Prior knowledge:
Structural class: alpha/beta
Number of strands: 7
Strand content: 15-25%
Bound molecules: flavin mononucleotide
CATH topology: Rossmann fold
Low-confidence stretches: none
Amino acid sequence: MTLSVLGIACSPRRNGNSTRLLLEALETAKTEGHTTELVYFSDLKINPCQGCNACSAKGICVIKDDIPKLQEKLIHADRLILAAPIFMMGLNAQTKIIIDRMQTFWALKYLHHQTLVNSSGYERIGLYLGTAGTKKPDVFDCAERSIKTLFHLLDIQYAQPCLYSGIDHAGEINEHPTAFAEVRKATQALLIS
Ligand SMILES: Cc1cc2nc3c(=O)[nH]c(=O)nc-3n(C[C@H](O)[C@H](O)[C@H](O)COP(=O)(O)O)c2cc1C
């Protein structure tokens, strides 16, 4: 079965560490015969949620930007791979902005009891690829909490993430002895599940 795999590169560094891992994952999926799409946050015009709660009425956001385009992709993807760095011990703002703007989906799902996903009859699965400069043991805790919340909202099962700490300057991930092999393995697992 050919799956559609959506990758979202959330780092502002287009050639940064998390995006490099994402490119490896998408290349793996492509090699395995699946359809891939890569979206860079930096190519989109996305504004933060204003907390106005207007979406509670009909699940429609008052902010006119690229979020509906991204939501369309999120609804139709069979697999989601989200690559995001840690900033100030949490997800970087770009990633968090995307997640917060899914409040329209929250409204549709929980207030209006609508099914968000065009069910193709099989489970959707998502993979989080994360990088952080420090090696603090809890450095990914806050990020994982938010990503799990996003995946739960989107009815996406949370796969074992690939998280790399102690990786700072852009491209440093290339020196990691196992990261790329682990990402390939995690992606393959995502595709056969
Ligand atoms: C504004 C900013 C804040 C950061 N805060 C943290 C932090 O709190 N903890 C940490 O481990 N790394 C922190 N980092 C380092 C990044 O997580 C690290 O450089 C990561 O590899 C970046 O991934 P990227 O290349 O995909 O953007 C920060 C980097 C920036 C630019």
